[in-house]
Amino acid sequence: MMDDFPAPVAEFLRRMAIDHRAPAYLLASREGDLLTTGGSLDHYGLNGLTAGAPVEDQVLFLFGELPLGAESRSIPFVQMDGMPATDVHLFRGDEGDWIILLDASESERNQQSMQQISYDRSLNYERLEKEIRKKEILLHCIVHDLAGPLMGIRGGFELLSLTETLSEQGRELVQIGLRQSTRQETLIREILQAFASEIEQFEAFSIDPETAPDALAAAREVIAVLLPAFERHNARIRLDPALNTNAGWKVAGEKTRLERIYSNLIENALRHSPAQSTVTVGLHDEGEQVLVTIDDEGPGVPPEAGAALFQKFSQGKSGRGKIGLGLYFCRMTVEKWGGAIGQENRAEGGSRFWFRLPRPEETSEGAE
Amino acid sequence: MLRKKICMLGAFAVGKTSLVARFVRAHSTGALTDKYHTTVGVKIDTKIVDTGDQSVSLAIWDMAGEDDFQKARISNLTGAGGYLLVADGTRSKTLDTARSINERVVQSFGALPFVLVLNKTDLTEDWEIEETAIRQLIDRGWRVIRSSARSGAGVEEAFTLLTQLMLR
Ligand SMILES: Nc1nc2c(ncn2[C@@H]2O[C@H](COP(=O)(O)OP(=O)(O)O)[C@@H](O)[C@H]2O)c(=O)[nH]1
Ligand SMILES: [Mg+2]
Description:
heterodimer; A: alpha+beta; Beta-Lactamase; Heat Shock Protein 90; 2 domains; five-stranded antiparallel beta sheet; five-stranded mixed beta sheet; elongated; disordered C terminus; B: alpha/beta; Rossmann fold; 26% strand; binds guanosine-5'-diphosphate; binds magnesium ion
């Protein structure tokens, strides 16, 4: 197109586009040896190149590039110590492979600062999102916990209302208490329903022997997954050797969440395990229920911290993080499935985290 | 001396530049500031790696990260002998990005030696990538190394392992 332009215009345009960009070129033979050079090579720190010698031995950023294919190629913003940001263009000609260098430091600076702003924003956004997610879970946990004592309160009022010895006025007051606590429970249920997706996870579990998860299989699965993590810490993880692997170990619950509970508790044990120590996972038959134990050989939990371990705001000495919330989640899930969870320090040292879940029997006990 | 070109691939802000800085300028702690300075284009550094039985001169191409709007420039792998695929352990979606970049590399260049580097292990509290996900990749034959450009853990290992894989 520039062919049609009067010479002075074409010349002006050429200067405007290129001159301040310190153009330089190299020509390489098809074998990759340097034939000729020209332009502001010293601008790129490329002084004293030897004709006849391989280009890729002399120009670091051309290593592996030659010989070119039929397609021309460009590498924007090549940066090296002692060289400005450079646009490198490569194309094949009859004479050999041409390599064109153009200073791109100005547009690199512009692009960099725009990109920087955009990435800083994205990162901030991601961080906020993560923080909000955490808060949502926490809030859900708190609301869920508020419902606990209410059942007791309502139960208390119910018992009272059945008692004959109340005065007329007393009975009325009890009725108010009963109504209000029921209302409060409904309210909490409604709030919880708003966390619909979270709720689903909690509601969906099985007490049907057909579909209920196997506590031993889940333990094995999680141990297999965490094995490398233990190896990295020079610690061991094992199933209790005394465990009867032929017995049935199905429990009420849901497989994925059961594995989550295992990995939460086992990862927690690992976190407190000294090198060379062993974490033992045990399953114990308690008739209607199965007791799962996770024993570590760590320092144990100080008694004053033990009670708070599964509470919503307990997040350990280390401060923030998912650890505290993890145990809280375990507790909520286990309790939802009609079980219990706890921790005790073992006589022989270390700590034992345990949870107990009902077996999936015909009775609907524990299903809420 | 034998020479090899390798590339740093991954999402933005996973620590590609920091890993190279840690590896190439191991002793200049000043290079590792908290201030994030994103890379545009490519930054090329060299470093000699001793694998035990052979020394190799690496040309390390530290590339701009991939984001929603801009794909990693796969064509920059021309002539490369292998690559480090970097993900940020505290941002699990950067592992998805790494997977998708890898697919595109394999499409264009076939199976080159590579190592998946899960960076920022020092941030244990914020760690997101689950062991199960890592396990799956290892089962598929991926080499995985956990690293921290901050503490230096795993950095040397990642580059050395990749070099060894390229020499096989
Ligand atoms: N805590 C921590 N921060 C890191 C680590 N590696 C990189 N960063 C930080 O993460 C941000 C992005 O790092 P950078 O190397 O520029 O990532 P790149 O975009 O992949 O090149 C910077 O703020 C770094 O300081 C690490 O191992 N630990
Ligand atoms: Mg970078």
